[in-house]
Amino acid sequence: MTSLNTLNNFKSKKIRVGRGIGSGKGKTSGRGVKGQKSRSGVAIKSFEGGQMPLYRRLPKRGFNPIKKSNIAIINLGDLQKLIDNKKINSNEKINIDNLKKSKILRKSISQIKILSNGEFKSKIDIEADYSSKIAKEKIEKVGGQITLKNQSK
Q1: Residue 146 CA, distance from chain mean position
Q2: Which of 108, 111, 103 is nearest to 131 (CA)?
Q3: Global pTM value
Q4: Per DSSP, what are the bridge partners of residue 125?
Q5: Which CATH architecture has domain 71-148?
Q6: In what order do the strands lie in the sheet with 111-115?
Q7: What is the tens place of the pLDDT at every residue in 66-117?
Q8: Distance CA 153, CA 23 (A)
Q9: Cα–Cα distance between 16 and 10 in angstroms, integer?
Q10: Among 87, 89, 150, 86, CA closest to 114
Q11: Can you give the residue ranges of every domain in the chain?
């Protein structure tokens, strides 16, 4: 009767190390003589012989998203200080382009968000991408106007 499992015929026999000198893998079990690699429990997987390892040569990516949108957060108190110091003209419409030209924001910033921290007393017309409800209320309470670009209501 033939065996049902025909794959067994093609399997190579497992080498049993440390089973005497006649096996060819006896005594040191093919590990050579002495040294760190001849001992058990050794893991030198990423060691490159003292050369700077690959994981340290490559730049860190971590959890920084590649397509991160740079949103600048501006508090109303900070806006008031800029108006008081005459870095921003409150009569003109304030938007991201004006803030970049006056070097208040970096060039890499793509969106702005207005938050309500601080005292605010100037009447301004501002264009932003995002805004908190309280900030919007504060601007409209003083007589100013805020237009949101990305939010459609």
Answers
A1: 32
A2: 111
A3: 0.56
A4: 93, 145
A5: Ribosomal Protein L15; Chain: K; domain 2 (3.100)
A6: 71-75, 111-115, 130-131
A7: 888 889 999 999 999 999 998 888 888 999 999 999 999 999 899 999 999 9
A8: 81
A9: 18
A10: 150
A11: 17-58, 71-148
